[in-house]
Design a protein that fits this description.
2 domains
């Protein structure tokens, strides 16, 4: 029994060994001995940058003698294209953030590779023109919808009155 306990303990200790990271050029920040802070790309910027140390693996550089055909990885990641240099073509939606007490707008860029992004009005280039166009199309769509709904309601009303007239005519013919 003691032998199985010691075997299980050795396995547990190997899998859950504390990793010894020290601050340096590849480690940005440590939060105690159990958490580290990583630098995230723009796509993951809404995620929290602090991770448990157990999920982080140490970087091992490749040996060029063992792997001569392996390509060299660039040392730094080029900065992603900022939203100010991309052209915004359309405002799709709006939302009001209660916590910030600001409105954000979902914008579409001219470059199809760029994803739609929520921006505040101050961050949108040519905001007045784009927002005026957005509000105009939104208002026209609601009036068209209202007119369409009114038209359908009128059709139903006409159908009901025709059915009533037909029933009256049948009743009149029945009693003659």
């Amino acid at each position: 029994m003691q032998e199985s306990f010691s075997y299980a303990k050795d396995k547990w200790d190997k899998l859950h060994a504390t990793k010894d990271f020290k601050l340096g050029n590849l480690v940005l920040a440590l939060h105690g001995e159990n958490a580290t802070e990583v630098e995230l790309s723009e796509e993951l910027s809404n995620k929290h940058p602090t991770f448990p140390v157990i999920l982080v693996k140490p970087y091992k550089s490749s040996d060029s003698e063992k792997f001569p055909l392996r390509k060299k990885v660039p040392q730094h990641i080029p900065p992603s294209e900022s939203s100010s240099t991309r052209k915004i073509t359309k405002v799709l939606k709006e939302r009001k953030l209660i916590t910030k007490k600001v409105r954000e707008y979902l914008v579409r860029y001219s470059d199809p590779a760029c994803e739609d992004k929520w921006l505040e009005e101050k961050d949108i280039t040519e905001a007045t023109k784009l927002l005026r166009r957005f509000r105009h199309t939104r208002n026209n769509n609601t009036t068209k919808l209202k007119v369409h709904q009114d038209g359908i309601e009128n059709l139903f009303q006409m159908a009901r009155s025709m059915i009533e007239m037909q029933k009256r005519e049948e009743a009149r013919l029945k009693y003659q």
